[in-house]
Amino acid sequence: MIRLANNDDLPILVNIWLSASREAHAFIPDEFWLSQAEAMRDQYLPGAETYVVCDAAGTPVGFLSLVEDSLAALFVDPTHQGKGIGSALLRQAQSLRKGLGLCVYVNNDRAQKFYRRHGFKPVEERLDERTGERELFMQWSTT
């Protein structure tokens, strides 16, 4: 089941984001992710259109966040990855927009392949000044 997130979900979503970020981005120091957790909870998630996928008990296990036509976040709890949750969330985002853009770290091959499978095309490579890592801007469109 995919539903809009609510304020009660925020602590769980931050935990999903933190654990998935640490696992997918081991090339970025852990201190960076920890330093961003408060802003994720207080600014980024409340400022986005966020959808969650819940397990049978109703607990979120993955989420996506949209800011206008930007896929700002898509994270699945590492213990629930590989079950189609990320694909379901991405299809939800694609059903809500005619086009989407996103950034993915160049060193995150798994995510790049995932987005390519779902029709995203690389547009440009640039530097994420917060982390010093190269990132790839990708776009998807219905046209």
TrEMBL record:
Gene3D superfamilies: 3.40.630.30. Its EC number is 2.3.1.-. InterPro entries: Acyl_CoA_acyltransferase, GNAT_dom. The keyword Acyltransferase applies. One of its GO terms (molecular function) is acyltransferase activity, transferring groups other than amino-acyl groups. It is an enzyme of class 2 (transferase). The keyword Transferase applies. Keywords: Acyltransferase, Transferase. Pfam families: Acetyltransf_7. This is GNAT family N-acetyltransferase. The lineage of its organism: Bacteria, Bacillati, Cyanobacteriota, Cyanophyceae, Synechococcales.
